[in-house]
Design brief:
Helix content: 40-55%
CATH topology of one domain: MetI-like fold
Radius of gyration: 33 Å
Structural class: alpha/beta
Number of helices: 23
CATH class of one domain: Mainly Alpha
Distance between the termini: 62 Å
Shape: elongated
Mean pLDDT: 85
Bound molecules: adenosine-5'-diphosphate, magnesium ion
Strand content: 5-15%
CATH superfamily of one domain: MetI-like
Low-confidence stretches: 624-628
Number of strands: 13
Largest sheet: 8 strands, mixed
Length: 628
Amino acid sequence: MMAFLSLLARNRLAIVGLFVLSFVILLSLLTPFLNLSDPDITNTAERFNMPFSSNAILGTDHLGRDLFSRLLWGTRLSLAVGFLAAVIAAVCGAAIGILAGYYGGNTDNILMRGVDMLMAFPYILLALAIVAALGPGLMNALIAVAVVNIPFFARNIRGVTVGIVHREFVDAAKLSGMSNVRIILTEVLPTVIPVIVIAMSTTVGWMILETAGLSFLGLGSQPHRADLGSMLGEARAALITNPHTSIIPGLMILVIVVSINLLGDGIRDALDPRLKSGALSRPMSKTKVVASKTNQINKENYLLQIRGLKTEFQVKDRTYDAVRGVDLSIKQGECLGLIGESGSGKSVTALSIMGLVASPPGVITGGSVYFKDYDLVQAPYDVLRKLRGNRISYIFQDPLSTLHPLYTIGQQLIEAIQVHQSISREGARARALNLLQNVQIPNAEERLNAYPHELSGGMRQRVCIAMALVNDPELIIADEPTTALDVTVQSQILNLLDDLRRERGLSILFITHDFGVVSQLCDRVAVMYAGEIVEEGATETILKNPLHPYTSRLMACVPKGSAGQKSLETIPGLPPSLDKIPSGCAFAPRCKSASKACRSTEINLIATAKDTHVRCIALEHANLEMTS
Ligand code: ADP
Ligand code: MG
């Protein structure tokens, strides 16, 4: 709750809305105690007095009634009816939605077809029909407005409910023997309440307008009782001659609706913080780059050479340095492992290569990424688009979320082929079939027509590998492709990648957090910590003799096959927060051998042996001692 309030407080417009709305609500709550003149007493001698001209502050209307008093009483009524209608619509709609979504099948059909029937009429016509059937009156207007808004809530909530009833926590609740009612109340309802609140906060204003609309037409509040809509309706005849009688209730409606909407937007943003970090804003087609051109060229015939790459996330007033000057290089046919704890910046590094980090909030602020002799950081979008999935392709961790759930494997492979090659559908299909065989999928012919959910995890990841291979890439970037798989399947997938690499001369950037995987597949390995490479070199050398304390601690976390192994190590402490990275060595707070110098001086990556680099000063001294 506090977190919600503090998030809400950051949104200035929402605070303005909250302030204005609270004021209006307070005013309408206090109306009976304000000693106002009776809103319904007519005095035709004082018709159409202008505001501030007599003892009625806001003037009088066509019957000489005190407008200020009528305005406050009317606001009170309009607010009450609008909120009540919103609550009724939300409760009924949510109940229908949850029941339909939870029970599915016939229940779903009957409830939702009922809702569809409500939706089959034009909205305002339905409200008019309901009021016509029930007879005019404020209560009936309230019912009409509530009823026409039920479908909106029912449909929204049903969608959300369907999305969660098959989730594991609901299954777990069923397994624990809970009754359906209890599951709905304790598991489903709390998950959908934010959606209900969001839907309500964005529709209350709308419902106040609708009630006012019905009253304006004479179907809502009946004379002599005023609500804002009926005040507008009665003032219509004098709109030109005495505009203040319309403007006053009109302004009040405007103020109420605008403040509710501002507050509603604020509540929505605060309940769903993803919206602020850019989930709603359309990401740019490539990551924003503010790095200046570097003139260094690719010297040693590397396929990919990353130099000083810096990527950060700019969220509101904070900057998260996810990648802080990374150097990596991959030769033709080589497999480079990139290893580090979760959150160390591996994925962001990999995505930066092809400008795939979402902007906003991601920005590449420095460095270069040479693919052969071409700097991808400075490349225009068109060039990147031609390379993506063509000469450089990606494999991600979770194949289920990478594959589109509504298309068959075959359709997706064929599409991937046809994006980059002008080839007939039959040709593409034959190629897709061939690829599935290459990645050792049994019954490849049948599998082409299967949907992703019909395959096992390992099978799906093979499909993703096939997808990455469709256009004969030179470089594959595999981001933890085996993390979601069990150990035997993981080993098969690694073997497959290894075979493919040797057959096709592929280069692979293989991201993982597991040294076991690195030893099975990678020629060289780079260890990443808090956005920096801390050690880099041939896999064998590093496995045999890790120099950086972080590397050795990471290696101690890998279970070894031998029996009677002592308990697994963990690394004490947590990686630093990326918006407050300590000066000096980022690992120092967790390092046993950290000295004072480690925490203050800038530490560089130094060469130790051939092609091996390490970023640690404790070692620098050790080396000096050795050489002296
Ligand atoms: P990993 O090494 O586990 O792949 P990532 O590269 O995904 O780690 O993330 C590196 C850091 O960047 C993480 O600490 C993460 O919190 C941060 N990060 C990633 N995406 C965003 C984002 N959209 N906004 C803010 N920070 C982000
Ligand atoms: Mg990652």
